[in-house]
Amino acid sequence: MYHNAFILSSSFQVLAENLTMVTEFLLLGFSSLGEIQLALFVVFLFLYLVILSGNVTIVSVIRLDKSLHTPMYFFLGILSTSETFYTFVILPKMLINLLSVARTISFTCCATQMFFFLGFAITNCLLLGVMGYDRYAAICHPLHYPILMSWQVCGKLGATCGIGGFLASLTVVYLVFSLPFCSANKVNHYFCDISPVIRLACTNTDVHEFVIFICGVLVLVVPFLFICVSYICILRTILKIPSAEGRRKAFSTCASHLTVVIVHYGCASYIYLRPTANYVSNKDRLVTVTYTIVTPLLNPMVYSLRNKDVQVAIRKVLGKKGSLKLYN
């Protein structure tokens, strides 16, 4: 009897040793690319600086030019601010890792990175949905637009996007990091994303993954369907406008938003609306680069290059600064 108890006790000790809890993760990132990492560092650093300068320019111009103090640009300003922080959560660490041999990140920092990344990403998804509603209200109900999109309503919608985004993020992060992580700690990605991290858990993750999938549907599919319905109504209204110039002007206000929506929702849906077992590191990493770098880059470029109001405002602001320098 004592002999059996000793064997059982020894078995539990061995099991406990094998189930050593992970205290840090190793971000593999682009380590398999060898010397190409230096070239990637230069490219990503340049793109990161362009993203920062582009989004800061848009936020500054919207704030300084009173002609842009409208609901559409109010939400664009929030989106640009959110995307600035969104890239800040991922890209600096990725740039450091491209030049570093030690690519470790602590368990707590990994959870924190995922929380803020998902928080800002989901906020962006919800904001794009709200911006779709704003275009619907402006084009389909122009007479009621001041009431439908009053500053009080805009403030509440903006706050709801932020609070909703971070509550959804908190739920997902809790579901991921409440799982036990044992000996495996190599994250096959350049940041702590859901699929690469949850694959390291040393238990069955089906229930957690299903709940995360439902969260993904709520924050991706629902806003996207809402945008689609809004644009169907917008298209019907635009087609009723008698003049070609009127139709062109009405659609041009939507083109920039629609471009960002297609890229953002397309890439995010491809990554998050499928089982973790289907995660393919190299291909998925390329798609992730698109929505973590290209989309935040696309947003200021599309809205500044395609939007005449923003172009005029930028020239106006730069003109004022130039005249002040000459005066001084």
UniProtKB/TrEMBL annotation:
<keyword id="KW-0807">Transducer</keyword>
<keyword id="KW-0675">Receptor</keyword>
<keyword id="KW-0297">G-protein coupled receptor</keyword>
<protein>
    <recommendedName>
        <fullName>Olfactory receptor</fullName>
    </recommendedName>
</protein>
<feature type="transmembrane region" description="Helical">
    <location>
        <begin position="210"/>
        <end position="238"/>
    </location>
</feature>
<feature type="transmembrane region" description="Helical">
    <location>
        <begin position="153"/>
        <end position="177"/>
    </location>
</feature>
<dbReference type="GO" id="GO:0004984">
    <property type="term" value="F:olfactory receptor activity"/>
</dbReference>
<feature type="transmembrane region" description="Helical">
    <location>
        <begin position="111"/>
        <end position="133"/>
    </location>
</feature>
<keyword id="KW-0472">Membrane</keyword>
<keyword id="KW-1133">Transmembrane helix</keyword>
<keyword id="KW-0552">Olfaction</keyword>
<keyword id="KW-1003">Cell membrane</keyword>
<feature type="transmembrane region" description="Helical">
    <location>
        <begin position="250"/>
        <end position="273"/>
    </location>
</feature>
<feature type="transmembrane region" description="Helical">
    <location>
        <begin position="40"/>
        <end position="61"/>
    </location>
</feature>
<dbReference type="GO" id="GO:0005886">
    <property type="term" value="C:plasma membrane"/>
</dbReference>
<dbReference type="Pfam" id="PF13853">
    <property type="entry name" value="7tm_4"/>
</dbReference>
<dbReference type="InterPro" id="IPR017452">
    <property type="entry name" value="GPCR_Rhodpsn_7TM"/>
</dbReference>
<feature type="transmembrane region" description="Helical">
    <location>
        <begin position="285"/>
        <end position="305"/>
    </location>
</feature>
<dbReference type="InterPro" id="IPR000276">
    <property type="entry name" value="GPCR_Rhodpsn"/>
</dbReference>
<dbReference type="InterPro" id="IPR000725">
    <property type="entry name" value="Olfact_rcpt"/>
</dbReference>
<comment type="function">
    <text>Putative odorant or sperm cell receptor.</text>
</comment>
<feature type="transmembrane region" description="Helical">
    <location>
        <begin position="73"/>
        <end position="91"/>
    </location>
</feature>
<feature type="domain" description="G-protein coupled receptors family 1 profile">
    <location>
        <begin position="54"/>
        <end position="303"/>
    </location>
</feature>
<dbReference type="GO" id="GO:0004930">
    <property type="term" value="F:G protein-coupled receptor activity"/>
</dbReference>
<keyword id="KW-0812">Transmembrane</keyword>
<comment type="similarity">
    <text>Belongs to the G-protein coupled receptor 1 family.</text>
</comment>
<keyword id="KW-0716">Sensory transduction</keyword>
